[in-house]
Amino acid sequence: MYSGILRGKLKDFLVEIANMASFTILTVKYIFRRPFEFSEFRRQSFEAGYKSFSLISITALIMGLVLTIQTRPTMAEFGAESWVPTMVFISVVIEIGPVITALLFAGKVGSRIGAELSSMRVTEQIDAMEVSGVYPMKYLVVTRVLATTFMLPVLVIYADFMALLGSYIGFTLHNNISLWLFIREAFDELYFADIIPATIKTFIFGFFIGILSCYMGYTTNKGAEGVGMATNSAVIMSSLSIFIIDLIAVQLTQIIL
Amino acid sequence: MNLVTETYNRLVIKITNLNKWFGENKVLSDINLKLSEDENLVILGRSGVGKSVLIKCIVGLEKAEEGRIEVFGNDIQQMGEFALNKLRKNIGFLFQGGALYDSMTVEENLLFPLKRNAPDLNEKDKNELVEDVLDSVGLLDAKLKMPSELSGGMKKRAGLARTLVLKPKIILYDEPTTGLDPFTAQGISELIIKVKKRYNTTSILVTHDMKCARTTADRMIIMDEGKIIARGNYKELQKIDNEIINGFFR
Question: Cβ–Cβ of A125/B102 closer than 8 Å?
Fold first, then answer.
């Protein structure tokens, strides 16, 4: 009996994966179909990017501050206090910055996309677009996926610098150092080989947050209950994908570099 | 590609042996239907008998597993996405709740499909067309309102205006009077007649509102459990001795 249930679950899971894959392929196909919905892309970029700045600012500042406050005493014990800016900044740029920012982004933007598209689906707005000769995939999905893909890297870079500022504030609670010297110390051991994979990773995070949130919203079919489920699934799936992509990216970076 | 062929003998929709399932549940069973130009066909039936699914199949929103749906001579089921989208410009669809885009004003709702389907029209012509259509449904004063500011009847009229702006040859109405008070419902029924006269449209109207059916129908069919159980005009159907059919006339 249990093997039958398991088989059923596995089948459902594989069908869902196949549907997600075909949705992704369709989205990529529509990216190249002219004319491009530029004004909607601009609006979505504003919604995803600009409206996330305050959340990212506060979180990244605290992240840098806390990391520094917690690391400094241990480093000081080993007489390596001067390494704190470098250590904190490298860990923020390579790992913590992209992952934390992407998780926040998935929570804020992914949930919005999931809720918006699913409510459009249940109120037949997507069907209305389709019957009036408009391609909803192009107007609704492509613009959102591109907005998340291009806005997340911008937010991550911004978050890195806010974390650096937070780290400086934390460091100056016990040490007297100029901001300029602190920045120089932070960048001292940072190489392009560290920055490039981390940046590429954020584009992939952004793409998957967009595509999974759109998929969850676009394919919902259970009325008001479906809106809640789509919003929830958009955040869960996006967050999960961030960790999976991060794991793959770390492995690939180690093989390539 | 000319999708609307003049040689199609005034027959705009022809449905042959249509069958559709949702899982193991058969929702449409052996549907055969013809609709001529300028005709108003009303599909009557209780909730959940497959009326809405049928008109969604006609416009390609749902795909039937068996059978053939020809619109202006084109088999909807076999059409590619691009050709289907082109054909859809000739078919208007009024959704049950109006399905207005809630992030846009009424005017923007009308301009949205117009900009994408009539790129050659200049801004002035587009705005004039929008105002003309809004005027014809009595919503000119509400053009800057958001859908959340509209009443149920106004939403349906705005939805109809958005459909009319593309000058469709066929309009499919999904429960146009459901959820409205009797006065507003009567207003919508009269508007459907007015639209037919002014825009020369052929219509299929799905409803369980007998008053609306009586006002708008040239011909009626009655559906039950996915099947067509009766055809005819109001008077002919009234004479049939059948429990389900009689239920609509009580």
Answer: yes
